[in-house]
Amino acid sequence: MPQVIQRMILNVTGLAVGWHGKAAAEGIDFSLEQGKTLVIAGPNGAGKSTLLKVLARLNCPIAGEVLLGGKTIWQYSAKEFACKVAYLPQELELGQDLTVEELVALGRNPHQNWWSWHMSDADKQAVRKALEKTNAWQFRHKYLSSLSGGERQRARIALALAQEPQFMLLDEPTLNLDFRHQIELIDILKDLKSQGIGILTVLHDLNLMARLADQILLLGTSDEKPSRVISYGAPSVVLESTTLRNAYQVGVSIVTDPNSGQNIYVPTL
Amino acid sequence: MSSGRDRFVYLHFAILVGVLIFAFVLNLCLGEVTLNPLQAINSLFAPSQNMPSGLAEVIWQIRLPRLLLAMVVGAGLSMSGYLLQALSRNYLADPYLTGVSSGAGLSVACAILLGVDFTFVPLAAFIGGLIVSMIVAVMARGPQGLSVTRLLLAGVAISAICGSLITLILVASGNPTQAQGIFFWLAGGIAGRGWNELICAASYIFIGLTAAFFLSKPLRVMSLGAQPAQTLGLNVHVMQWSVLALAVLACGAAVSVSGLVGFVGLIAPYIARQLYSRDERLQLVACVLIGSSLVLLSDLVARMFGQGQELPLGTLLAIVGAPFFLWLVVKQKSEGL
User: Fold this and answer.
1) How far is it, in rounded angstroms, from Cα A148 to Cα B317?
2) Across the interface, which of A78, A95, A116 has its CB nearest the CB of B233?
3) Any chain B CB within 8 A of the CB of A20?
4) What does the buried/exposed string (b/e) look like for A159-191 if buried means 16 or more CB atoms within 10 Å of the residue's CB?
5) Which of A268, B35, B320, B331 gets the highest tally of CB atoms within 10 A of its CB?
């Protein structure tokens, strides 16, 4: 008998985000369903990271509403919210050196009593699954300080995954990774998506975006004004040279790879 | 699977407990009347048997409360330092250097002068310490969270202010005996305290320590930083306030009996972290054991220093602690922190 799963939806309407009451981006509308990927793109300073922080409840919005499963995100308790949404900042500095497994175990925090160190069987299983899905199982005993950039990033995704969230918010997860590791990471994210996690990620690389995104939200600024949505939709719609020029103020030539038939995006300098 | 760094958990623990017992027995034996360890231990467990008259008195009324008090003070200060360091995510934080001790000291001086019953002196110390810690925290808050430089600068400034206010109070009080007492208390020392003070300070610190144990898991989550901790479902504001309150409570209770004793809260947590780099519960226990031993041994040296004249405990610990602090500063600088 087919199982009917209610898919949760993240709905954003009329959102304005920024600092100290000054908007960095405004007029943002989108919705993201579990099991889909939305890439947020745009030039530096367009407010992408700030937007992500608002969605992760770390910053307050200036205007607008964010609904998760029909309730505003602020209606959830910190614990409930952390069971639904995981957030990965660009950098994670550590006060002390943990092993990968110890770090990932902290992802179970929202599922545990706040004071308890006890790991239930469910906790252990979730940690194991998170490590396996991110191919981090084999280096689970390594210290974070001894990891390579690619391993470090996988460990961090495993941490978010151990929360067993319905949505993951990632801020430039491919930062500082070489292209092999970038592709590996995109494949991990695609795999997570296929398992029903809604992925919302900031990316800079147009080719990676094309590879990963179901939808793209492209932000762009002009003349010191808050940035706005320049285009929102499927990659084939958004990744189009006029639109990209509008957002980045740089031309992008689009060529088709004769082998794979995929589009390749090359900024023209 | 445990990995290399924490392989010696039990051995380290045995050593820490061993040092504490050694310091305990040494404190019990040495003094104007010197006992052999067997006599001393006998007098504790069976005070009446074969005991020269007056010896039981010395042990039970003078040495035992004093050494227990030294342990309690060490436990309180080291735990306070540990919590403050975890909160600021910097190993240079310490109740003395951040001004918490002197804030507590100021209110203790006021309380003594007003003749407040000793049961409430630790509470007064708590309130004073909390007020100062809030002032310091507000001053130290920069755009990127708590700035350690500002924290220490604000701490030094506040300490100076509290110190001069205490002096003012003393001068204004016009009671030379009381003033002298408070002066000695200011320099830090646990001479002349009895069971009442001990039980009072110990209860506050015991409550604080128990609560700190419950906070050990949130402390680990917070070691990732405030924002990541929040996204992991921790109510970071509540936790930060609770940790601060506990740190101040422990410090206040210690200061109310020992005066301004610094650097224990710097040294003990540092060693504990080196021994148990990855388990906050063990760190906390080790920290308390080390802090207790440290104050016990220091008090012994202070006691034995001169004929009839004691060296203030705070002065003694500063001689060891201040260079240690400088070394930590240099170390952090070379590590680019």
Assistant:
1) 43
2) A78
3) no
4) bbbbbbbbbbbbbbbbeebeeebbebbbebbee
5) B35
Question: A63-76: per-residue pLDDT in tens?
Answer: 999 999 999 999 99
Query: How many Cβ pairs closer than 8 A exist between chain A and B?
Result: 73
Question: How far is it, in rounded angstroms, from Cα A37 to Cα A41?
Answer: 13
B278–A106: do the CB atoms touch at under 8 Å? no
3-state secondary structure at position B17 = helix
Q: Does A95 touch chain B (CB under 8 A)?
A: yes
Measuring CA to CA, how many Å separate B11 from each of B2, B271, B292? Answer: 15, 15, 19
Tell me which residues of chain B, numbers 86 to 105, contact chain A at a CB-CB cutoff of 8 Å: 86, 89
Residue A126 backbone dihedrals phi, psi, to 5 degrees: -65, -40
Q: Does B143 touch chain A (CB under 8 A)?
A: no
How many CB atoms are located within 10 Å of the residue A3 CB?
4
This complex has an ipTM of 0.90
The two most distant CA atoms of chain B are separated, in Å, by 68
Q: Which run of H or of E encompasses B302?
A: helix B280-304
Q: Please give the distance of CA B301 from its chain centroid, rounded to a whole number.
A: 18
Q: Is B1 on the interface with A (CB under 8 A)?
A: yes
Cα separation, B116 vs B108, in Å, equals 9
Give pLDDT tens digits for A91-110. 877 656 789 999 999 999 99
Structure-token match 């008998």, residue found: A1
pTM of the full structure: 0.89
Is B86 strand, coil or helix? helix
Out of A57, A93, A107, closest to residue B232 by CB = A107
Query: pLDDT tens for residues B169-204?
Result: 878 777 777 777 677 677 777 777 788 889 988 999
Contact A114 B234 (CB under 8 A): yes
For chain B, domains (ranges, CATH) are: 2-334 (1.10.3470.10)
Q: Cβ of A119 under 8 Å from any chain B Cβ?
A: no
